[in-house]
Structure formats: C-alpha cells, structure tokens
Amino acid sequence: MEKKIVLGEDAKYYNYVERLWDSVASLYNYNYLKTNDSFEDTIYFLEKENISKNKYYFVAGNYLGLFNLNDSFMALVEVISLAYRLLEEMGMQDGLVDIDIKDDKIFNYLELLDVDYEIGQVSEYKEFKTTIFEIINDKEVLVYGGELKNGYGFIIDLEKIVKILKDIGDKRLLNNTLDVNILANSIEEQMVGMRLVQDLRWSDIKSDIGEFDSRLTVILDQEALNKGLMQVKDNLTGDIKDVDENEILEYLISNL
C-alpha cells in the first residue's frame, strides 16, 4: 500500500470524518480494532483467531471498515442503518440504499428505521461473498456492503467522502478544529496568552496561540492589557468587543 501524508485542510476533513465514525460506531456498540491490514485480511484474522466479540470497526488506509460477525437478518439491518446514519450525520441527506435482496422482513425494518432504499442490482466486490447493498449519493457509490463468512459488513471510501464534504463546504469543520485562537506578539502578551490557553484547555475549550482558523479570536495588546481589557473577535460575524480580562474565560465559554 502506497504511503500518503495528508496535511492542511484535507487533514481536517479526514480528522472530522474519522472522529464522527468513532462516535457513531461506538453508539452502536461496535469495538474499535486497530489495524493496518486490508478489510479481507482483518476478517481472515478474526475468523482464524475465533475472537469472541463480534462487532468491530476500523480505519485502514483510505477506507473505513465495519463488520458484524452475526448472520442474523437483524445484523444486516443494523449494518445498513449504521452506514446510512453515518452519511446523514455528515450532512448527506440524499443518500439512497440500493439493495439486491428481496426480503419483506428486512424491508419492514428499514422502513421502521427511516432508511430510504430501493430494490436494484448492485456491483460485485471482492471483499464480500455476496454484495447486498450500496449507498449512493449523487450517483456516487460511497458505501458497499454484504455477506461475510459469518456475518455482514461494509466499506466506506474515505477519499470520496472527503471530496463531497469539500464540494459542499461543510462549515461544521470550523467548529470541530479550534474554538479559540489567541494573537500575541510581545513576550508579556505571550505569557498572558499562554495562561489563558491553559485555562481554556482545562475548561475543555480547544485553543491555541497563533494564526489559526477558529470560532473566536482573542487579540492581546499591551496597551489594552494595561487597562485590564482583551479584544475578542467573532469570526462568524466579524464583531470585535472589549472584554474585562477577569471575565474573559466566562465570556468565551458563553459565546461559543
């Protein structure tokens, strides 16, 4: 597998998707699996080692993988609905499940879970004994899944997901990277800024000193600091406000 380093804005998108992936899969009670192997090699390892827990998710290269080693129809329904909900959480509301199986019981459950689907032929993929479904967004196959030896799973193409998120300009990424950045020039300003950054971080506010994209910017100026004031810029509205330094932490937290 060719090694690839992702930097800058692209890395933020990958980080956003992978964090959301972790959150959604955990809610469905899937166990995280650390792996550098392919989907097929990972499945082979689990079956060979006879691992007791049967619900796993992982990130491998440019793919997200998930499998439920349970061959009941409920496992298939869960696998499909999880993939569908993950795309919805990313803001892709137009996803459609193409399903190549005729089973009214499964259809009833998908309708119960508000999953949009249609019956249709899907492509074959080497990772599955039988490919059962694809999830399509704007004619692009983002997810494909199907039958394993002892259960069901799916694979998501990370590069396609990131490309779509960049195309639609998902603004939530701004809030998921940094809450507050602090601008400070002199040593004295930097010392004040470092103390404020620590207080913010201990309050679970993502913050840093320097030129970063963020929701709010604190501008430190020695003349204003001598008066006990800090300037706060709202990067969504462009408004700038003088805030008493004794009230700065409370102000930042309440305005995020």
Give a brief description.
The protein has 256 residues and is α/β, with parallel strands linked by helices. Helix content is 39%, strand content 26%.
Describe what this molecule looks like in 3D.
The longest helix has 20 residues, at 8-27. The chain is of the alpha/beta class. Helix content is 39%, strand content 26%. The chain has 2 domains: 8-173, BirA Bifunctional Protein, domain 2; 179-254, Anticodon-binding domain (Rossmann fold), CATH 3.40.50.800. It has 9 helices and 13 strands. The model has no long low-confidence stretch (mean pLDDT 87). The radius of gyration is 23 Å and the shape is elongated.
Overall mean pLDDT score? 87
How many domains, in number, for the residues?
A: 2
Discrete helix count: 9
Strand content: 25-35%
- Please mark out the parts with pLDDT under 50 across 5 or more consecutive residues, or reply none: none
**So, CATH architecture of the largest domain?**
2-Layer Sandwich
Count of extended strands: 13
Largest sheet: 8 strands, mixed
Keywords:
256 residues, alpha/beta, BirA Bifunctional Protein, domain 2, Rossmann fold, five-stranded mixed beta sheet, 9 helices, 39% helix, elongated
